User: What shape does this take?
Amino acid sequence: MVARLSSGDRPTVKDVAAIAGVSATTVSRVLAGNYPVAATTRGRVMRAVQQLDYVANAQARALVGGGPRTVAFIIRDLVGPLFAYIGQGVEQQTTAEGRLCLVCTHNGDPDRELELIELMREQQAEAVVLVGGGVRTAAHLERMTQLAHALDRTGSRLVLCGRPPIGADVPATVVEYDNEGGAFAATSYLISLGHRDIAIVGRGEPAHTTTKARFDGYARAHKAHGLEVAEQRVLPGTYDRESGYQQTKALLDSGVPFTAVFAITDVVASGVLFALREAGLRVPEDVSVIGYDDIPLAADLVPGLSTVHLPHEELGRTAIRLALHRDQHALDQHVVLGTHLVIRESTGPAPHKQ
Amino acid sequence: MVARLSSGDRPTVKDVAAIAGVSATTVSRVLAGNYPVAATTRGRVMRAVQQLDYVANAQARALVGGGPRTVAFIIRDLVGPLFAYIGQGVEQQTTAEGRLCLVCTHNGDPDRELELIELMREQQAEAVVLVGGGVRTAAHLERMTQLAHALDRTGSRLVLCGRPPIGADVPATVVEYDNEGGAFAATSYLISLGHRDIAIVGRGEPAHTTTKARFDGYARAHKAHGLEVAEQRVLPGTYDRESGYQQTKALLDSGVPFTAVFAITDVVASGVLFALREAGLRVPEDVSVIGYDDIPLAADLVPGLSTVHLPHEELGRTAIRLALHRDQHALDQHVVLGTHLVIRESTGPAPHKQ
DNA sequence: ATCGGTTCGGGCAACGTTTTCTACCTAATG
DNA sequence: CATTAGGTAGAAAACGTTGCCCGAACCGAT
Assistant: This one.
C-alpha cells in the first residue's frame, strides 16, 4: 500500500475519501463525530487519515463557520516587565476559551497600531486587545473610535487593557488599574510612617494618562493629610532606570530636603536606589523608597522594594473573559481593578529631625 | 445614501460591488491594485468600501492562496525571564517577513505540546517554533520526528530554539546556544582569577540537556587547567532562586572550602548571593559568583552579576530567518550561536590563602 | 407482500475571495 | 471604412470544508 503522497500538496478530504473508498462527506463526519457512521467505514477512513497524516485545513473550516476563533493581542513590545504577566493572563484565558492567540507589536508607533487593528479585522479576530497607555492625539482617538464601531458591527470587540476608555459611546471593553488609588495608598503609607517631605520622581508629561493618575494620587494623599505638595520635590523624567538615577542625583545636589521618594515605576525606583546608595544614604534608615508596578525585579532589589502591586495576570484574564462573554457581562464592560501595597524593606519610619 | 448594513453580518465583496454598481471581480482588483481599472470605477469602488468599512476576509483569501501566512510560537509559558527576548526576536522577524505570529503555551505538558503542533498544522503555519528544553521520552521523540516529517511534507517547518536536535534525518531547523562553551569560558575566567575551589550550584538531573552541557563546560575547564572537579562542590538543585539559596546554605554548613560559585542560571545566582550575604560574606572580596543567561535582573542585582550572555533575541530572529528561507540556507539548518562573558562586579581575584 | 422507520452514505450548495478566460468598447491604423 | 490592438469589465471556476437534503438498504411489523 503505497501512500499516494503528491509531495508539496497537503492531502485534502477528497484524497482521504478516495483512499478509503467513501465520499468527502463521510470523511468529514468521521472526523467530526457528529453523525452516525458504520464502524467498518469509520475504520477505513481512520486508516486512510493516518496513512496520509491528514489534518483539516483550518482556513477552509473557518470559512464555513467552524474552527477555532482567534483573539489578537497588540502591544508595544514583548520585553517590558509588564508584558509577561498580562500576556500570560491573556494567553491562558484565550486558550481556556478555546481560542487562538495572535500577538503583534507596534514598537510605540501609533499608526502601526491602527494598521494592526485593521489587519486583525481582516483576520476575523473575535477580540482585539490593546495593552498599555500611550500618547493619544485627537486624530488617533477618532480613528480608534471608528475602528471600535467597525469591530462592533461585525460582532468583534475592541478591548483596552490598562488604558483609559476612548469615549462614552464607544463600544469597547475596558479594564484598568486603579492607578490613582494605588498612588494615594502608597503616599498615605509614607505619610503614616511620619514622612512629610516626599519627593515624586518620574512625573513626566501630564498628557500621559498613567503618569497623571499616579501624580494625582500623590497629590490627593497630601491634601487628605493637610500637607502641601512642594514643587521642588516634584521631579520630571521618563519611565527608565537612568531617569530615576539622574533625577535623584539632581534632587540630592539641589539640597532640597526629603526623607522619602515615590518613584513612578519600579524601574525608576531601581535608579533611585542606585543614586541613593552612591550618595552614601541608607535605605530605609535615611530615605524610604516606594515604587509602582510590583515587577519581579522589585523583590530582588536590595533592599526589597516596597511597591504597589498591580494584578497584571488578572488584568489580561479579565479582559478576555469580559470581552468574549459580553452578553453576560453587559454592564461590566468598564472595570477598574484594585491595587494593593506590598511592603518590603525599602520603607521605614521617617528619621528624626535633626 | 443609507448604508445597507445588515448588522451582524460583515460586508463582502459582493455587497461592495452592488453598491458601486460593478462586479465582485472589479472590487477585488481595485483593492489588490494588480490590474488596470478605470479611474472613475476605482473611485466608485473606493467610496463603497469606505461606506461599508469593508475589509477582506483573510480566511477566504488564504484559502485561495493569498493573504499573510502565519508562524506558530510554542513555549512553556510567558513569564520566564528568557521568553521575553526570544519572543521579541521571533515576533519581530516574523513581522519583518510579513507573517503573523501565533503564540501558545503548554505549561510544561509534553502532550499538550504535541497537541499544539497538530493544531498549528491545521492552521497551515509556515513554521512551528518550539522554545526551550525539557525532558524527552522516547515516545515523545518519536512522535516529534513524525510531526517534523508531516510538517516538512506540506512545506512547513519544525524549528527547535535552544533545544538540541531530535535526530539526524529529521527535517528541522535547530538554533542552539553554545551552553558548554559558555560554561567553559565562565569557569576558565574564574580559574584565571586564581580561584581553585569553584562550586557549581544547580547541577540537577543529567538528563536535562542544558544542565548537562553547562556542567560539562565546567568540568572541561577544570581539566584544561589541570584541576580536579571535587564532588563535594557539585551541588544539585532546580532552576529557581530558592534552590540557589538552599544549596548555598548547605554548602556553607558543610564546611567545604570554596572561593567561587558558578550558578547554573542567573536566577539561581540571585539565591546564591542572598545566602552569601546572609552569612556575612562579601562578594566578590570573599567569594566570587558567576551566573548564566544574562537576564535583565543580572544587571540590577547588588553587586552586578557577572554572567554568560545568551543572545536571546538573535536566537529568535535567526530561527525564523533560517526556517523561512531554508532554500537559501539549506546547509545552515543547525546553528550554534556563540555566547560571551559579561563581567560585572560579582567576580574578582581569589582571596589570599590563609 | 407491503409499509414505516431507522441507519448510513452521497450529491450539491455554500462560505468569500482570487484568477483565468472571455467579451465588450473604443481608438488607432491600414 | 474595415481591421486590430489595447484597455476595461464580467462570468465562472477554483480553493477545502461542512451542512442540508435526499436516497438506498435493511429491519421488523402488520
